[in-house]
Specification:
Elements lengths: L1 E3 L4 E2 L4 E2 L8 E3 L4 E2 L4 E3 L7 E3 L4 E2 L4 E3 L4 E3 L4 E2 L4 E3 L24 E3 L4 E2 L4 E3 L3 E2 L4 E2 L4 E2 L2 E2 L3 E4 L4 E5 L2
Parallel strand pairs: 1-4, 2-5, 3-6, 4-7, 5-8, 6-9, 7-10, 8-11, 9-12, 10-13, 11-14, 12-15, 13-16, 14-17, 15-18, 16-19, 17-20
Antiparallel strand pairs: 20-21
Length: 162
């Protein structure tokens, strides 16, 4: 089910796939989904919820996996990938594409007033607390402190919002 608020702006060049498993994709009022954003139900039955006034810029890919919850007033720069799912791969006697997925680490939660720089990768189990900033090219897994400024791989705190 795809539920787009009438006051949301979704580019006609965005690609939002409907789920065959009942995954919900919800885009709230005044949210903006730019051209060439891909939202793909894959790897689980979690919902994708994008909050009010949040912006997802061009080239981002969001897999539904174990779910993505994006709060209000979130800014996501271009070419970010959200992967709330983990492939199984340990069994060398089975082909990779036959091994399925590992248990959920909780999906992805992004609280209000967060900025995610270009080319970031956000992984299953990531929790980005209110007001944090993630620098371009970073890989995020685990919990990020509120109002912290974090960059890199491995991710490290370089400051905080004042």
């Amino acid at each position: 089910m795809i539920d787009i608020h009438p006051d949301a702006r979704v580019s006609r060049l965005a690609d939002i796939e409907d789920s065959v498993r009942g995954t919900r994709i919800v885009i709230a009022a005044f949210a903006s989904i730019d051209s060439f954003v891909k939202i793909k139900p894959a790897g689980g039955s979690g919902d994708v919820v994008i909050g009010e006034r949040s912006v997802v810029n061009s080239g981002c890919v969001l897999y539904t996996g174990n779910g993505i919850h994006i709060g209000n007033d979130v800014a996501i720069a271009a070419n970010c990938t959200f992967a709330p799912v983990n492939h199984a791969y340990q069994d060398k006697n089975r082909r990779i594409n036959q091994q399925g997925f590992l248990p959920s680490k909780g999906g992805i939660v992004i609280e209000d007033d967060v900025w995610i720089g270009a080319n970031c990768i956000i992984l299953d189990g990531a929790i980005l607390r209110q007001g944090c900033v993630i620098g371009a090219g970073s890989i995020v897994r685990g919990e990020i402190a509120a109002y912290s400024i974090q960059v890199g791989n491995p991710l490290r705190q370089i400051g905080g919002r004042q």
